[in-house]
Every structure is written in structure tokens, then in C-alpha cells.
Design goal:
GO terms for molecular function: 3-methyl-2-oxobutanoate hydroxymethyltransferase activity. Its cofactor is Mg(2+). The chain is of the alpha/beta class. It folds into 2 domains: 5-235, TIM Barrel, CATH 3.20.20; 239-275, no CATH class. It contains 12 helices and 8 strands. The chain has helices at residues 5-13, 26-34, 46-49, 61-74, 93-107, 121-129, 145-148, 158-174, 186-195, 216-219, 236-253, 270-275, and strands at residues 18-22, 39-42, 79-83, 111-115, 134-139, 178-182, 199-203, 211-214. It is elongated, with a radius of gyration of 23 Å.
């Protein structure tokens, strides 16, 4: 079944959990789509996982579009959300709409996501008014890493908890159809999930959230990144390292390629090859 804003909202109403993974390429998108994952996030975390930056700030709209359209081509049923990168929506409503429009037109995604609470509600209102579904993202918003002084848990203490709840209510009121709660403590994110009609998507949050998201390299043990929430569902990184070592060994020992990996049937006879006498 194709996932849409309507089917996802119905899942929340029926108390069914929603799965989301990040993804940045076509081959992985096909695997995620075939597994029945409801949503993909083409996250600006690609600046770290795919490009090796220390944070997400250098990522551009053009880059999000290249990765985003690759993922969309791999999805038949999964709902694709693309992150708006740092400084592509903060400057003005006009800038936010222009970039959200470009992302939708040039990737074929079904929604955009942007970080922030009350301060980005004018942008959320304008983008949704243009018919573009918006996912908000509150709590630990990685594009503010320099303001936070690190990727640290937000919503600690009563004043911060109140602010996170107010942000959640504000983005819902502004028209977001879902909100990501990143590193928001469990009781607070459970309360937000109860209070909101829109979908809450947890990462390092509560199992009570309507949806959960993880970075795909983290859940497969491929990244060197191990925050508390990054459960490994397989050790694919170790499997890859072993396969690379095996390949290296077989190339160097001459075991690979074997005759079944070569085009034996298309070959010329040895007599003919011996008769070749070509000069430059
Ligand atoms: N590979 C990857 N996975 C992610 O989940 C992810 C990214 N990259 N890049 C963008 C953001 C950054 N994120 C982060 C980064 C670090 C922590 C972290 O180290 N958290 C500490 C808690 C710190 C505290 O106690 O305040 C932890 O121990 O989990 C969490 C989320 C989540 N996102
Ligand atoms: C970690 C998730 C929520 C994200 O925003 C990203 O992958 O960029
Ligand atoms: Mg992001």
C-alpha cells in the first residue's frame, strides 16, 4: 500500500506504530521500500554519514536534491520526506517557500522537514498553504549545534520541558502534519504524543511516540556513531569489512576472478591469438 499523509494519519488514529529510516541513495531505498518501512527521511545527516562533515551545517539545497531524487526513484510505497538544510528556510518566508518548492519539484518527494518550533511557524504556515506537507523537528535540532554547545539532550528541566511542549503545539497549529522529537526525554515525549493530533516521530525519545526514526547506517552498525538510541539491528559494518578483506586477499592471490567470472565463451582460439602480429 502506498503511504500518504492520509494513510499515515489513519495509522496514528488507529494506534498503529509507524516506521521511518533515513536513506540517501537508490539501492538502499529499494531495500527499505521492499521491507515495508512506512517513511524515509532524506536527512541532512547525510552531511555526516555520506560526506564526512562533523555536523550538518555545510549541506546545501542542491545536494539534498541530488540525494533526494535518488531515493524517490527507489520507492514504490514508502513516503519520502526531504530535510531542508541549514539556512535554506531561516532567512524569510519567501526563501523557505522557494527552497521547499525546489525540493518538491526537483526530487518528487512527498514532504519537507525543517527544524525549529515557534520561530519557524510563519514558514510552516506558508509552505503548508502552498500544498506541501511539512514535518517539524524540535528538541535537539542538530542545525543549532553551535548554539547548544554540542548534540545535547534538550527539554531538561521544567522551563525547557515547557518550551518543547509549547513548540510542539505551535508547529501543529501552524499546519505541520508530523513532528520529529529528537532526544526529548520519554515522559515529556509521551505527553506531547498524547496532546497532539499530528504524528510524533521519536529519535532518542519515547516508545509512546507514534513513529520512530533511526539513521540507517547507525541501525546497521556501519557508522562510527553510537549515541544511546542507535540500536544495532545487524552488524553490517563488520560483514562489509570482512568482505572487503576477502576480496583484497583473492585479488592478490589470483583466486578472483575464477573462470565463471570471465567471458570464456566469447574468447578467440589460442591458434588465432598466436597468429596475431600487430605492430604500432
Ligand atoms: N549518524 C548519525 N546519526 C544520527 O542520529 C544523527 C546524525 N548522524 N547526524 C545528525 C544528528 C546528530 N544527532 C546526534 C548526535 C549526537 C548525539 C549524542 O551524542 N547524544 C548523547 C547524549 C548527550 C547528552 O547527554 O546530552 C548520547 O549519549 O546519546 C545525539 C544525536 C542525531 N543525528
Ligand atoms: C536524525 C533525523 C531526525 C534527521 O533530521 C536527519 O537524519 O537529518
Ligand atoms: Mg536532519
Amino acid at each position: 500500500m502506498k503511504n500518504t499523509v492520509a494513510t499515515l494519519a489513519a495509522m496514528k488514529r488507529n494506534g498503529e506504530k509507524i516506521s521511518q529510516l533515513t536513506c540517501y541513495d537508490y539501492s538502499t531505498a529499494k531495500l527499505i521500500d521492499a521491507a515495508g518501512i512506512n517513511m524515509i527521511l532524506v536527512g541532512d545527516s547525510l552531511g555526516m554519514t555520506m560526506q564526512g562533515y562533523k555536523d550538518t551545517l555545510p549541506v546545501t539545497v542542491d545536494e539534498m536534491i541530488v540525494y533526494g531524487r535518488s531515493v524517490v526513484r527507489g520507492c514504490k510505497e514508502t513516503f519520502v520526506v526531504v530535510d531542508m538544510p541549514f539556512m535554506s528556510y531561516q532567512i524569510s518566508i519567501e526563501q523557505a517557500m522557494q527552497n521547499a518548492g525546489r525540493i518538491m519539484k526537483e526530487t518528487g518527494a512527498s514532504a519537507v522537514k525543517l527544524e525549529g518550533g515557534k520561530e519557524v511557524c510563519p514558514q510552516i504556515r506558508a509552505i503548508t498553504a502552498a500544498g506541501i506537507p511539512v514535518v517539524a523537528h524540535i528538541g535537539m535540532t542538530p542545525q543549532s549545534v553551535n548554539a547548544f554547545g554540542g548534540f545535547t539532550v534538550q527539554g531538561k528541566g521544567e522551563a525547557n520541558a515547557r518550551r518543547v511542549l509549547e513548540d510542539a503545539l505551535a508547529v501543529q497549529e501552524a499546519g505541520a502534519f508530523a513532528v520529529t522529537l529528537e532526544c526529548v526525554p520519554p515522559k515529556l515525549s509521551a505527553l506531547i504524543t498524547k496532546k497532539l493530533d499530528i504524528i510524533t516521530i521519536g529519535i532518542g525519545a519515547s516508545p509512546e511516540c507514534d513513529a520512530q526514526v533511526l539513521v540507517w547506517q547507525d541501525m546497521l552498525g556501519i557508522s562510527d556513531f553510537k549515541p544511546k538510541f542507535a540500536k544495532h539491528f545487524a552488524e553490517v559494518g563488520e560483514t562489509m569489512r570482512e568482505a572487503f578483506r576477502a576480496y583484497d586477499g583473492e585479488v592478490k592471490s589470483g583466486v578472483f576472478p575464477a573462470s565463471e567470472h570471465t567471458f570464456v565463451k566469447s574468447d578467440c582460439t589460442e591458434e588465432f591469438l598466436a597468429s596475431l602480429d600487430v605492430e604500432y
